Automatic annotation (TrEMBL):
Name of this chain's protein: Uricase
Pathway the protein takes part in: Purine metabolism; urate degradation; (S)-allantoin from urate: step 1/3
Keywords: Oxidoreductase, Purine metabolism
Family matches, as Gene3D superfamilies: Urate Oxidase
Family: Belongs to the uricase family.
Secretion signal span: none
EC numbers: 1.7.3.3
InterPro entries: Uricase (IPR002042), Uricase_CS (IPR019842)
Catalysis: reaction(s): urate + O2 + H2O = 5-hydroxyisourate + H2O2
Physiological role: Catalyzes the oxidation of uric acid to 5-hydroxyisourate, which is further processed to form (S)-allantoin.
Pfam families: Uricase
């Protein structure tokens, strides 16, 4: 039998990092989950257990904490780039790094007290390869719902079809979006603008399918934001079924719903700028969506 070591990477997953900035009496809080992953000439440890090229995952974790203190965390994209470049430039055997950061939000109660924000998470995935880099940012669990302006009909019917057609239904989803940046970007400003476009397009677009809404949301981002080369959206259809109240002699005029948590439809798609800069490595180690 013949075989050899295939692609491999290693790092510290889910380093929980909380920073408090006390430079004024109004403290600011950042809550991040950082994952590092390194690639390079790492065959020896796999084949013989020779660790002379292995930057320990414990060292990677410590570097995350040290960089948070020394230089601070401002934009998560810049923090990720700083970490990625550090590993690639400081260690000859390391040729590539991927740094993933999730930012968890907190709402301010007072100068130095906070309450748990929504489940929504801001994300970035930075890939450094030699002197190249790619930044893929996004969000997860952006929950949106509209109570009208959504229809679904015209689909094929076979002997297994029971779904009634509707011209007025609740449309609800928890958006996961990832977009690839190109050029120079003001990350926080761009994130806020893209998030706002996603939300406002969801609300404004009269929907004949969640697929149509997804495409409208992605298109709105590409039309308004030249720094976005492509966007991928994953949107569960969080079904709200009209409850049959007739056994109780009651009419239900689209007012009482059963919010099913599973199964759910899962609608996924991307919108890609025709003249986008080459994606290169940007997506290659991300899941398809
Ligand atoms: O917007 C929708 N798209 C579908 O593909 C689908 N399928 C389904 O059962 N309901 C819906 N809704």
């Amino acid at each position: 039998m013949s075989y050899s070591l295939g692609p491999n990477q290693y790092g510290k997953a889910e380093v929980r990092l909380v920073t408090v900035s006390r430079s004024s009496s109004v403290h600011s809080l950042r809550d991040l989950t950082v994952s590092t992953s390194l690639r390079g000439s790492l065959a020896a440890t796999h084949l013989t257990g020779d660790n002379s090229d292995v930057v320990a995952t414990d060292t990677q974790k410590n570097t995350v904490y040290a960089f948070a203190k020394d230089g601070g965390v401002d934009e998560i994209e810049d923090f990720a780039l700083r970490l990625g470049r550090h590993f690639v430039t400081s260690f000859e055997q390391i040729s590539g790094a991927r740094i993933l950061i999730d930012e968890h939000s907190w709402d301010r109660i007072s100068d130095h007290a906070f309450s748990g924000g929504s489940r929504e998470v801001r994300t970035t995935a930075v890939t450094v390869s030699g002197s190249d880099h790619w930044v893929v940012s996004g969000l997860r669990d952006l929950v949106v719902l509209k109570t009208t302006g959504s229809e679904f009909h015209g689909y094929p019917k076979d002997k297994y079809t029971t779904l009634p057609e509707t011209s007025d239904r609740i449309l609800a989803t928890a958006v996961t979006a990832r977009w690839r940046y190109q050029g120079t970007v003001s990350y926080t400003e761009s994130f806020a603008a893209i998030r706002s476009l996603l939300v406002s397009t969801f609300a404004a677009k009269h929907s004949l399918s969640l697929q149509q809404t997804l495409y409208a949301m992605g298109s709105a981002v590409l039309e308004a934001r030249p720094e976005v080369a492509e966007i991928r959206l994953s949107m569960p259809n969080k079904h709200h079924f009209v409850v049959d109240l007739s056994p109780f002699g009651l009419e239900n005029n689209n007012e009482v719903f059963y919010a099913a948590d599973r199964p759910y439809g899962l609608i996924e798609g991307s919108v890609v700028r025709d003249d986008a800069e080459d994606a290169g490595l940007a997506w290659y180690s991300l899941p398809e969506f």
